[in-house]
Write a structure and sequence with these properties.
alpha+beta, globular, 25% strand, 25% helix, 8 helices, D-amino Acid Aminotransferase, Chain A, domain 1, D-amino Acid Aminotransferase, Chain A, domain 2
């Protein structure tokens, strides 16, 4: 009688290994102050209602910002994008730029945060009078949340990261426009779960035509024979860091192209790197088991990253 072959499957404990996570709990954040709606609360008291739209349906918009040496980098750009997302979702009672800036600075000062700080800025549609989908049930105004944490860039920008291609396609404007920076991140989270199971740091997401869009949490670039390429921002968020990279490339006279890029082109690139506020400019050393081989000795990412770090020192809105 033929014996059945035992099938080995990844266990939940393997999937949930916390030591493999890029981000870990920082004890410095245990007693931070968090701004909710109109004032600061200690971490263990900072809450929203169970009737808040973010709880009811992920109905909120957000931005990620970083603080460098007493200055908030690209603050106006992030608030402008938050306002644009809120307008697209027909939010009412949207706080002014001045109110948001004051809330951010108040939070940073209360926590004595001046550098190596990440800010998660969230605007929910607010509290509903009863559970339901209809935005007309939100009759108490929007709710601003400023969560600032001591958090250096999450990726190792020297060693780099490993990626896999997810079977989850990135949302296109036909479904839910990725240019709305909304809190319903299930599209991205499903891809990240896939990366976790594969032992990768993040997942590449393709668009509805099969071209590379971005990763589950960052924009992405390749370098080939001295030229910089990045996907069209059709099915991805055109990130603030992405925009700065293209700006710097222009200033350094590095030729760049935005176009559809297949996953095979990524496998054969001289350099691949991701961009985002959380990780800055992070090199990629492997995709789907293929090593990224720098056959032409390209150092374009290093050139741009050096200029980017200079930019973070020279620009930004002072906290004080």
């Amino acid at each position: 009688m033929q014996r059945k072959q035992k099938i080995l499957r990844p266990s939940i404990s393997t999937f949930n290994k916390s030591l493999d996570m890029q981000q870990q709990f920082n004890p410095k954040n245990e007693h931070i102050q968090i701004f909710v709606k109109d004032r600061l609360y200690p971490r263990n008291e900072a809450k929203v209602s169970v009737f808040d739209s973010s709880v009811q349906g992920g109905d909120a918009v957000w931005e990620g910002l970083r603080v460098y040496d007493g200055k908030i980098f690209c603050l106006d750009q992030h608030i402008d994008r938050l306002h644009a997302s809120a307008k697209t979702l027909a939010f009412t009672d949207i706080p002014t730029k001045e109110f948001i800036k004051e809330a951010i600075k108040q939070t940073l000062k209360a926590n004595d945060m001046r550098t190596d700080t990440h800010i998660r800025l969230t605007l929910t549609r607010g509290e509903k009078i009863t559970s339901g989908m209809d935005p007309r049930l939100n009759q108490k105004g929007s709710c601003l949340i400023v969560l600032a944490e001591f958090k250096p860039p999450v990726y190792d920008n020297e060693t780099g990261i490993k990626l896999v291609t997810s079977h989850i396609r990135r949302n296109s404007p036909m479904h839910l426009d990725s240019k709305i920076h909304h809190n319903n991140l299930l599209n991205n989270i499903l891809a990240k779960i896939e990366a976790n199971y594969c032992g990768a740091d993040a997942a590449i997401m393709l668009d509805n035509l099969g071209f590379v869009s971005e990763t589950n949490d960052c924009n992405i670039f390749i370098v080939k024979k001295g030229k910089l390429f990045t996907p069209h921002a059709d099915a991805c968020l055109p990130g603030v860091t992405r925009g700065n990279v293209l700006r710097i490339a222009g200033e350094l006279n590095i030729p760049f192209v935005e176009r559809n890029i297949s996953i095979g082109e990524f496998y054969n690139a001289d350099e691949v790197f991701t961009t985002g506020t959380m990780g800055e400019l992070t090199p990629v050393y492997e995709i789907d088991g293929r090593s990224i081989e720098n056959k032409y000795g390209s150092d374009i990412r290093k050139q741009i990253y050096h200029a980017y770090k200079t930019l973070t020192q020279d620009e930004g809105e002072p906290i004080e």
